[in-house]
Amino acid sequence: MSIQTVMVVGAGQMGSGIVQVAAAAGRKVLWHDLTMPFIDKGMLVIRKHLARSVEKGKLTVEEQTSIIGRILPTEDVTDAAKVDLVIEAISENMAWKTNLFQKLDRICPPGVILATNTSSLPITEIAAATSRPSQVIGMHFMNPVPVMPLIEVIRGLETSQDVFDAIFQLSKEFGKTPVEVQDFPGFVSNRILMPMINEAVFTVYEGVASVEAVDTVMKLGMNHPMGPLELADFIGLDTCLSIMEILYEGFKDPKYRPCPLLRKYVKAGRLGRKSGQGFYVYA
Ligand code: CAA
User: pLDDT, tens digit, for every residue of 77-95?
Assistant: First the structure.
């Protein structure tokens, strides 16, 4: 199963990172979002990152030009009929995702693989909304996508071996290390990461230590590149809360209950870097 042409749906931070990685790996990438200004904004981010790589001598100007040339923005979702693989990277909303997958299922010829970059929604449920559950798979990239070497490749209940093998191989050709994961709440990454972040929030909530102290312990004591609270701000506190709710709901185990302080911050609109304030304040 050769995957040469890819459509990425969604022009947020994850979508633009995936587009950059796929185009750098020589794939023609159709980039779809509902309106062109979203894609234009994402394109600026990609151009900035590529320009930085050229300045650092990691990329030639010719390579930069050909990567950009392989990215084709489109407002027309029916262009999905022209690709071998669609990677969905829209907001984490099950109704929006199932709606999109049903649309893609109608548009794409048989054989086209539909992948989701969801960080925590069940692949099996998204797949069940289509008439091709064997061709639906999870492809969970980490943020920032161009930098982080991991892709969790998540098998839905019905995902075929051929589709799994094709996505595993493609992930390697994207320059990443794929890891096979089964479809259970939080997969592996967020099942382990989010309770750690939640526990860091509890540590502050209970007055054990300050935000800075918690992050310093984990950075200097455990060699984490970012402390858990800095990382929570980077990911988005609303995303962290929503993943904790999915773990809590999925396992019905009180160890996954979200910290009240995390809930309070989200209710207040303190969502982390993207809103200008979370556990830290951003300029
Ligand atoms: N996009 C592209 N490149 C980026 C980038 C971005 N957003 N941010 C940083 N980089 C690049 C820089 O250009 C730099 O490249 P060079 O090595 O070529 O110079 C490199 O990354 C290192 O960047 P910096 O020197 O500016 O900063 P740093 O050394 O502090 O690293 C970091 C920044 C890579 C983000 C690092 O702090 C880190 O690894 N943090 C942890 C990130 C993490 O845990 N991500 C997973 C989040 S969880 C997730 O994604 C799953 C989920 O479902 C929630």
Answer: 999 999 999 999 999 999 9
